[in-house]
Amino acid sequence: MRPIERDLLRFKEIVRGEVKKRAREFLTREELFGQVEGRLVSIPLPQLELPKIVYGEPLGEGLGLGGPGTESLGPGGHVPVAELELEEFLDLMGEALRLPRLRPKGEGEVTEEAFRYTTIARKGPRGLRHVRRTLKESLKRALITGEYRPEEPLLVPEREDLRYKAPKAKPRPHAQAVVLFALDVSGSMREEELRLVKTLSFWITLWIKRHFPRLERRYLLHDAEAWEVSEEEFFRAREGGGTRLSSALLLAEEILKPYPEAFYNRYLYHFSDGENWQGDTPQALEALRRLLPTLALYGYAQVEGPYGQGRFLEDLKEALGKEEGLAATEVRGKEDLPLALRRLLGG
Amino acid sequence: MRKELRRWAERLRERALAEGLSFPPVLFEEVGPEEMAMLAAYGGFPRRYPHWRFGSEYLRYRETYRYGLGRIYELVVNTHPVRAYLLEGNTLLAQKLVMAHVYAHADFFQNNLAFKPIPKDMHEEMAHHAAFVEKAMERHGARSVEEFLDLALSLENLIDPQALYIQRKEDASPEERPPGRLRVRPYLDPYVNPPPEPPKEAEEGASPTPLPPRPTRDILGFLARHAPLAPWQKGILEIIREESLYYVPQAATKILNEGWATYWHTRLLLPLLSPQEALEFAELQAGLLAPHGFNPYRLGYLLLKEVEDRWDKGRFGPEYKALPLGERLTYERPTGEGLKKLFQVRTIHTDLGFLDSFLTPEFALRQRLISPEDLPRFAEAKKALLFRLTNGGYPIVELVDANYGNRGELLLEHAYEGVELDLRKTKAVLENLHRLWGRPVHLRTVVEGKEALLSAGG
Q1: What is the tens place of the pLDDT at every residue in B346-386?
Q2: Dihedral (CA of B190, B194, B200, B205) sign
Q3: Which of B51, B368, B419 lies closest to A7 in CB terms?
Q4: Quick one: CA dihedral B364, B366, B371, B376, positive or negative?
Q5: How much is the pLDDT for B169?
Q6: Residue B332 in contact with residue B314, Cβ under 8 Å?
Q7: Which of B42, B384, B393 sits opposite A75 (nearest CB)?
Q8: For a Cys staple, A243 with which of A40, A186, A197, A325, CB 3.0–4.6 Å?
Q9: Kind of pairing, strands A81-85 and A40-44?
C-alpha cells in the first residue's frame, strides 16, 4: 500500500470513530437533516483540528488586497471536514445506536430495470459490433446470392450485415416499502415535542430507506378526525380538539390499501401523547388487531407533553404486547431518542 | 517524459541561463492528478512519516481536482537537484509555461538568502524522519505515537524562524560545542548524547543561570532538550521542528518567489509563441493573475515589473524621493538598471522587506490597490499588510522562564502587537504544553484589552 493510502485509511478510520462517538449528537442535529437528502454527508470535525496559537481575528487586510485567497499558506489551517457517503454514515449511526437491520418480508414487486446487453441490433457503435453474428449474416447473404464458394471461403461483410450487441431492459425484483406517519395534534403537542417527532420520523425514514431503496412516504394528522397531509404540513405545529386514535388507524387502513402487503413492507408510525377519548381505546385496539398482521411494524411513540401523558401506551401493551410487529415506546425528552429509535425500528 | 517536452525543457533551460538565471539541475516528471494530490499533501516529498493529517489533505486536494474546483499545475521541491512535477494532461503550452516558471523558482531557491541554510538533501531527511517515526510506532504502538504527533504538531509554529541561521554560526565554531558531544542528526541527539541529569530542586533555586538563559522563541527546541520525555518523544519534537523550519523560507518568500517565477516565465516564453499559442498563453496568464482575493502571483509580479520600470527610468534615489507624488509619476532619467535591480531584489529580500521597500503609494494607486480618497490611509494599510506577513502571520511567542515561581512551571509571553489571540485554540495548545511539560504552563498575553495570564494545569 502506498503511504498516502495508509494515511487516508487512518483518517477515515478516525472519522468513523468520531461519527460513532458522536452518534447521539448527530441524532438531534437538525442541520444534518437537509444534507442527508443528498448523497454526501458533510461532517465538520473540530476536535480533529490540530490547535495552534493563532490570532483570534483576521489580520488587517490592507490595501484592498482582499481576504486570504486559496493560495494562502497562512495560519489557522482549516477545520477538517469529512464527507461520507450517506450509506456509510447511516451504517455507522446504525452501528453506534444499535439499530436493528430490517428484513424484507417478501420478494416485493417487480420494479427496477437493469440493462443487460442481451439482444442484437442492426445499428450501434463500433465498439459493440458483434463479430460472429455479423459474419453469420454475411455468410447467409453470400449463400443466398450464390457468391459463396466453399473452396475459397472469403466473407466480406457489407453494411447490411453488420450486427451489434444491444441492451435490453430486464426487470428485476426489488423489495419495496411504504411508511405512513400519523401524528396526534390534539392540543398538547408543542414545539418541543414536535421536534422529537420530527427527529424520530427523519431517522426512521432514512433507516427504512437504507434497507428498501424504493420507499414511499405518506403522512396523516388527526385529532378526533384524521386527514392526510403533505410532508411539510406534517411538521407544522398546530393545535386541534379532542383525540380519537382510532380515527388515525382507520384512515391508515384506507391510505395503505394501494400498497398490498404481498408486495410492500408496510410501516405505520403513530405519535401521540396517549390521551385518548374515553371509549375510543377499544375501537382503536380493534382496528389495530385488524391492521397489525398486515404491517411490517406498527410503531407507537408516546410523547410526554407538558401536562403529563395519557394511558394509551399501557392499554396497548396490555392488549397487544405479545403481538409480533408491535413496537411501542415512550419519549420524554432528547435523551430518550436513541433508545426510542431502536425500539421503534423493532430492536 | 515525452520527447517534445524534453526538447522544450532543454530549450527553456538554455534561454534561462543565457538571461542570467542560475540553478542546479532540474528534474521534471509528469504525474497524474492523484499523485499530484499525494505530493501536495506531503509538502512535495514522496515519503513522510505516517500521519492522518496527510490523508485528510490528500483527500481535500483529490476532491478539489475531481470536482473541477482547482488543479495543481506544478509542484517544485527545493532540493539538489530540484525536482519539479508537472500535471499530466496539461497542454504543451501549459507545460512550457510551467517549466519556465520552475526554472525561475530553482534560481530563487539557489540565490535567495533566506534559503541559504536550508539543507539540500531534504528527500533524505524526510525519509529518515519517516523511518524514525515508523520505528517508534513499532516499538511503542501506533496509537500512542500518533497521539504524541498530534500534540507535537499543535506546537509546530512555536519555533524561531532564525534558528537555522543561528545554528549555522555555531557550526562554524566547533570549539563552542560542549566537549564529549557527538554531532548527529538533531532528532537522534537524545539517544547519542543523553542530557545531563536535571539539577535537584534544592540546587535549582541557587542555580545562577536561569533557564532558558535568554527568552527564546525556539520553544520546540527547548522542549526537545528539557522536557521530561522519552528519547523517541524528544526525537519527534526535533523532527517536527526541523520540518517546520524547512518550510519557513518558502512561506516567507511566497509573494516574491511567485512573482519572480511569473516574471520569468513571461519573459522567457513570450518571444517563442505562435499566434495560436499567444491566445492560450493570455488565458492562462489571466487566470494566474486574476485580481480576486489575495493573489501572491499577481502582487509579486506587478511589483517586480514596477521595480524594473522604476530602475530603468531612474525613478529612485534621493533626488527622486524628494519630488511630490504628482511629479514622481512622470519623472524620467533613463538608466536601464531595471534587470540588475531585480536580481538584487531576488537575492536579498523576503516578502516583508520586498513590500516594505517597494510598495509605494504610486504603485498602490496605479494598480488600484487603493482609491485616491483613501490615499491618506496608505501608511496604515501598508502596515496592516506587513503585519500579516510578519512571522508567517503567526503571533510571536517566547519562552521566558522554565522555572516560573521557582516551581518548575513554564512561562510564555506573547509579544502583543494590538491583535489578540484565538482563546479557544490557545488554551488547547497550553493544555498540550502542560501534558508535555508535566507542570503548569502559563502564557502572558492581552485578553479583551487587558493584560492576562492564561494557565493550564495550574
Answers
A1: 999 999 999 999 999 989 988 888 888 888 889 988 998 89
A2: negative
A3: B51
A4: positive
A5: 41
A6: yes
A7: B393
A8: A186
A9: antiparallel
CB pairs under 8 A between A and B: 161
Partner residue opposite A54 with nearest CB, options B63, B368, B395: B395
What is d(CA A140, CA A161) in angstroms, rounded to the nearest whole number?
9
Nearest CA in chain A to B47: A3
- Write the residue in A54, A65, A73 that is nearest to B369 by C-beta: A65
The answer to whether the CB of A99 falls within 8 A of the CB of B405 is no
Q: Provide the 10 A C-beta neighbour count for residue B138.
A: 10
Q: With contacts defined as CB-CB under 8 Å, which chain B residues touch A46?
A: none
Cell 530553482 -> residue: B106
**Residue B1 to residues A11, A142, B8, B9, B30: CA-CA distances in angstroms?**
33, 51, 11, 10, 7
- Check A51 against B153: CB less than 8 A apart: no
Distance between CA B455 and CA B412 in Å, rounded? 10
ipTM: 0.89
Largest CA distance in chain B: 81
Question: Tell me: the pLDDT tens digits for A38-47?
Answer: 567 777 777 6
**What DSSP string runs through B67-95?**
TTS----EEEE-SSSEEEEEETT--HHHH
Cα–Cα distances (Å) from A48 to A14, A24, A202, B52, B431, in that order, read 9, 18, 28, 10, 15
DSSP secondary-structure letter at A215? E
For B375, the grid coordinates are: 490615499
B68-B73-B77-B81 Cα dihedral, nearest 10 degrees: 150
Compute the distance between CA of residue A53 and CA of residue B421 in angstroms, rounded to an integer: 7
Any CB–CB contact under 8 A between B352 and chain A? Answer: no
**pTM to 2 decimal places:** 0.79
Contact A122, A155 (CB under 8 A): no
Interface of A with B (CB under 8 A): 2-4, 6-12, 14, 48, 50-57, 59-75, 80, 83
